[in-house]
Write a structure and sequence with these properties.
25 strands; 24% strand; Beta-Lactamase; alpha+beta
């Protein structure tokens, strides 16, 4: 006898399949075609992303440089426009100042009005022009517009301009004659006046802010500059138009003495309208700021001033609406940078800012500030990027599709072979046809087909679970076994020797094959392992090679199914003129040795031990008690609450100490129609339990009567046998408590 190793065989594995086994790929594994496609996409997408990023950054730099250049050009254009507005005014003022200097009588002459009107008509941006002397005389020519109020009167509707002349009154020690203001309205220079009126208002230009501002400012200028001194005055609200207005003025000197001034006025709207007309982007803002940070004019949310009681109140940029201009001014003030970019504190948007200094030709330290969000200049870039991403993405999709198609042609045969191998390891007989022009794939396909045929033949000799475990473990087969608590089942045919003597060999083979196939199928359905066929007997067990916590229950279900299916098989055999078969089954649960038993050159996966012998003897005891399925008390303890059984007797087995209660299995508790009990079987079980209780308690008379009643009601052979046992006990001087089984 071959000595078995003490260590457990590696094939006797009672654990779940290894997750790394080839037939159980890890959950993160992906198909080959997807792998090829994914690898391609991992190469092309980053490359495409880098190209797009490079193009975007390069274009972004170009667009931002262009935006900065546009802002610089815009500021220069704004500066040039202001020069274009102020230079003709300056030239006009200097020209008239020379005339008045050469002819001081023009201060008091009415002819100066025509000269003023000529200069007014030659400059469309002007709204008025005036001449004031140090003696208090005043001459002004003013353009008319709809809605104007002059000296608290409504001028004629057709008037295009008016002359305003103020001659100072005579003053002496005796009396004072007030100054009169004469207003004359004209449609054209060549037509008669439309209206004239005189008011006494004591208007003295020398007391006006524009006169005092110029006189005080020019007094500090070098003498060589006084003849060409130009002053841009502070904005104010015009009394006649109620509009923000600015005045450009120059002094009139004679004999190096200040004799008066000339001034020309224009509305601030002329500058703001121009700034809005050359706005470089939708959200850009342009500000003209003075040296104190006050807004002169703006295209932003603030126009740079407010009007309070007909007085203009300038606004500082630090109090203006919108944090962008405040932030830009603060950065400029702190760093003195003239061109920079910054991030808006409120919106996190990037802005470009440009400060351009206005030449101090008019005694004003003005700066032009233009700021605009970078996004305004990126509209074209965004369109380019959208197209680039769209066309590039489309190209990637096309390439990905082509890659998928080509990879599928390569990977599909491999996938089919993989599925075949998986089905093969799961003992699925499916087979797929593979067509491939790749030599290696054809060789692999032929090898898989040969492996399928070999494995199919192998599983007819070796338990399928064992083969499956062998394939999963990948280890060599070794002799050895382990002790495990299992359930063993034996079947046998009643009267097989007699049947084989009278049945031709071909028909006998058909009978045996049908019976063995039926039992094998029921064992397989209940996850059991068919160990071997011994003539007309079948040996099977549950609980190995895979663990089964319900091994006893599954064995009993398989036994009941086998008996009930034999009814249908016998009906078929009888129709074919063959002899019906009667199957007897024994089931026992016990600790046995299970593993690879034999020699190194030939071994068998089987079970050994006293429990195997008891299961075999329980099959034979059916003949003694005229039962079909006999189970031991050990099996009953494992699954009795789920079975319909009735007690048979308490027996002893030769060579084994102790008594073994045995039971006949009739059905399975549950709702499976194939194994559930009939009403007769339920009643038979209940009645037998009562009779057996009397028998065990040695109430043999009552037990005999009960068994007789059962035999009469159910035509039950076991009850007749047990009745005779009761009578034997009554007639025996020393009655035996158990029934010995050899």
């Amino acid at each position: 006898m071959v000595m078995l190793k003490k260590k457990t065989s590696r094939l006797n594995v009672s654990r779940p399949a290894d997750p790394l086994a080839p037939e159980r790929p890890p959950s993160y594994a992906i198909k080959l075609r997807l792998t090829i496609s994914a690898l391609f996409m991992c190469l092309i997408l980053p490359s495409f992303g880098l190209v797009v990023y490079y193009i975007y950054k390069n274009n972004y730099k170009i667009y931002k440089e262009n935006a900065s250049e546009q802002i610089t050009n815009h500021n220069n254009q704004t500066k040039d426009k202001l020069h274009a507005l102020l230079d003709p005014i300056s030239a006009s003022l200097l020209s008239m100042a020379k005339q008045v200097r050469d002819d001081p009588q023009l201060f008091d002459s009415a002819s100066v009005n025509d000269t003023l009107l000529l200069h007014l008509e030659n400059n469309p941006n002007l709204v008025s022009i005036f001449l004031a002397s140090d003696k208090g005389s005043f001459h002004q020519v003013q353009k008319m517009r709809e809605g104007m109020i002059v000296a608290n009167r409504v001028p004629p509707a057709d008037a295009n301009f008016n002359f305003w002349v103020v001659q100072p009154g005579l003053q002496s020690s005796k009396n004072t004659q007030p100054a009169n203001s004469v207003f004359t309205f004209y449609k054209t220079r060549d037509t008669a006046p439309l209206d004239t009126f005189v008011i006494a208002n004591n208007y003295d230009p020398r007391e006006r802010p524009f006169y005092k501002s110029l006189a005080s400012t020019v007094a500090h200028a070098p003498e060589v500059l006084r003849q060409r001194f130009i002053l841009l005055d502070e904005p104010y609200i015009s009394g006649s138009t109620s509009r923000p207005t600015m005045t450009v003025s120059t002094p009139v000197y004679a004999d190096e003495k200040f004799k008066g001034m000339l001034g020309e006025s224009f509305e601030l709207s002329a500058i703001s309208t121009f700034l809005k007309s050359i706005q470089i982007s939708q959200n850009s803002e342009t500000y003209i700021l003075d040296g104190e940070g006050d807004i002169v004019v703006s295209t932003g949310l603030d126009n740079g001033y407010t009007i309070d009681k007909k007085k203009l109140v300038k606004q500082n940029v630090l109090s203006a609406d919108g944090k962008a201009v405040q932030q830009a001014f603060q950065l400029h003030a702190s760093g003195k940078n003239r061109q920079f970019e910054f991030t808006h504190a409120g919106t996190s948007e990037i802005y470009l800012a440009q400060f351009t200094e206005f030449p101090n030709n008019y005694n004003k330290k003005w700066e032009v500030l233009t700021l605009a969000p970078v996004s305004d200049f990126l509209v074209g870039l965004n369109e380019i990027n959208k197209r680039l991403i769209a066309y590039g993405g489309l190209a990637c999709l096309v390439l990905a599709f082509l890659t998928y198609v080509l990879s599928r042609k390569i990977s599909r045969p491999i996938e089919i072979l993989t599925e075949d191998i998986r089905d093969l390891l799961d003992f699925n007989p499916s087979r797929r046809v593979i067509h491939s022009n790749i030599l290696e794939i054809n060789i692999l396909s032929n090898a898989v087909n040969k492996l399928r045929n070999t494995l199919k033949a192998f599983t007819t000799y070796v338990p399928q679970d064992l083969v499956n475990d062998l394939l999963r473990s990948g280890n060599d087969i070794e002799l050895g076994g382990e002790s495990r608590y299992l359930t063993i089942l034996f079947t046998d045919l009643q009267g097989f020797s007699s049947i084989s003597e009278v049945t031709p060999s071909r028909e006998l083979m058909k009978l045996i094959s049908a019976y063995l196939a039926l039992v094998t199928q029921t064992v397989k359905e209940e996850t059991g392992t068919v160990d071997k066929f011994i003539g007309d007997s079948v040996m099977a067990f549950w609980g190995a090679p895979l663990l089964d916590q319900n091994h006893a229950y599954h064995a009993c279900v398989a036994a009941v199914k086998s008996q009930r299916r034999m009814v249908g098989l016998n009906e078929q055999l009888v129709k074919e003129g063959l002899s019906p078969l009667t199957v007897r089954i024994g089931i026992h649960s016990d600790a046995v040795l299970v593993g690879n038993i034999g020699s190194p050159t030939r071994m068998s996966y089987t079970v050994m031990g006293d429990g195997v012998n008891i299961a075999a003897r329980l099959e034979g005891i059916n003949k003694e008690f005229s039962t079909s399925i006999c189970i031991s008390h050990a099996t009953y303890k494992e699954a009795g609450e789920r079975l319909w059984t009735r007690p048979v007797d308490v027996i002893t087995v030769k060579g084994r100490k102790g008594e073994i209660p045995i039971y006949e299995l009739l059905a399975i508790r549950g709702d499976d129609p194939e194994t559930m009990p009939t009403e007769r079987e339920q009643a038979l079980c209940k009645a037998t339990h009562k009779a057996f209780a009397l028998f065990v308690n040695q109430h043999y008379n009552e037990a005999a009567d009960q068994y007789q009643a059962i035999a009469d009601s159910f035509n039950d052979d076991l009850s007749m046998i047990m009745k005779n046992r009761c009578l034997q006990h009554l007639n025996s001087v020393t009655p035996a408590r158990t029934h010995p089984i050899e």
